[in-house]
Specification:
By secondary structure, the chain is of the alpha/beta class. 23% of the residues lie in helices and 27% in strands. The chain contains 7 helices and 17 strands. The strands form 3 sheets. A 9-stranded mixed sheet has the order 3-2-4-5-1-10-11-16-17, with helices on both faces. Helix 3 packs parallel to helix 5. The longest helix has 14 residues. 46% of the residues are buried.
Length: 290
């Protein structure tokens, strides 16, 4: 089935989402020093009605939703999108509230903030809100945008725990079900700065069908038709492709023991590069061989 909506997943900038700045300057441009100065504008440009699009910010993943939400409104407003509001869904029962569901139905864009992706899926997963969200994404000109936890939760397979330093010890990386907007990938965020490459290695070697997507900070992917990926932002996207793995000791070692992997393929994407999830082919935007 061809996906009608667009998915924009972002690596994040600081814990618990962005725009938690203190001592805000009266000039908004001096406060927007995170990734959103570029990527939020791209979200607006990709949306159905551009600056007139109805945008709902979802702060469910955050433990400080009342602080983060208003800062996103300021950011979108500064970029010309004034039809923006925050949907505060902090309890599972709220995800069945008729008023909240009507606001979701009317939205052109939802922007999921950072925080804890397990909190996000445990509150929204399997609710009427979740069902409407997936239906809109699959069948209409609609954007799901998510940063940090909001990005990690977008796929079917979701990493929710695992330290960077011990990520290649068997059993250290914990995976559960995400919101299910995109198949055949597992997404990790804050990727380069926090050294999370080992988390993706373990996630992929356990099921090489799944492509590992590591999003650096100030970086994202715009995914169209559910399969075509374009790198956006100033940083790097690391892809881990396990389909050509030749050997591993994964099933032979005990929990807590190091994992060996032979022939794990990686790709590095930067701005405007593209990757096709069906062919697993990457196109470098400014290739030296063209």
């Amino acid at each position: 089935m061809e996906i009608q909506g667009k998915l924009i997943i972002i690596g994040g900038a600081v814990d618990k989402g962005s725009f938690t700045e203190t001592n805000l300057d009266k000039d908004p441009s001096k406060n927007l020093n995170f990734f959103e100065t570029g990527i939020l504008k791209r979200i607006i440009n990709e949306s159905k009605h551009k600056e007139q699009s109805r945008i709902e910010v979802i702060t469910t993943a955050s433990v400080i939703p009342r602080e983060i939400g208003p800062e996103y409104i300021k950011a979108f407003s500064y970029l010309g999108a004034n039809n923006t509001d925050v949907l505060y869904i902090e309890k599972r029962e709220q995800a069945s509230d008729p008023e909240i569901l009507e606001r979701l139905k009317a939205a052109d864009v939802v922007m999921f903030t950072g925080g804890d992706q397990l909190r996000l899926t445990s509150i929204l997963g399997g609710t009427p809100f979740d069902e409407i969200l997936i239906d809109k994404y699959r069948n209409s000109d609609f954007i799901y945008a998510g940063t940090s936890a909001g990005a990690a939760a977008a796929s079917n397979n979701m990493i929710y725990q695992g330290s960077s330093s011990e990520a290649l010890l068997k059993g250290e990386v914990k995976i559960t079900s995400g919101l299910g907007l995109i198949d055949d990938v597992v997404i990790d965020t804050h990727f380069v700065k926090r050294g999370r490459i080992g988390r993706l290695f373990q996630a992929v070697v356990g099921n090489p069908k799944v492509l590992g997507v590591g999003l650096g900070e100030d970086t994202g992917l715009l995914i169209t038709n559910g399969r075509q990926m374009e790198a956006i932002g100033s940083g790097l996207v690391i892809l881990v492709d396990g389909r050509e793995v030749k050997d591993t000791n994964l099933t032979q070692v005990a929990l807590g023991q190091p994992i060996s992997i032979n022939h794990l393929v990686t790709h590095v994407m930067s701005q405007y590069d593209r990757f096709d999830l069906d062919t697993h082919k990457m196109t470098i935007h400014s290739s030296q061989y063209v």
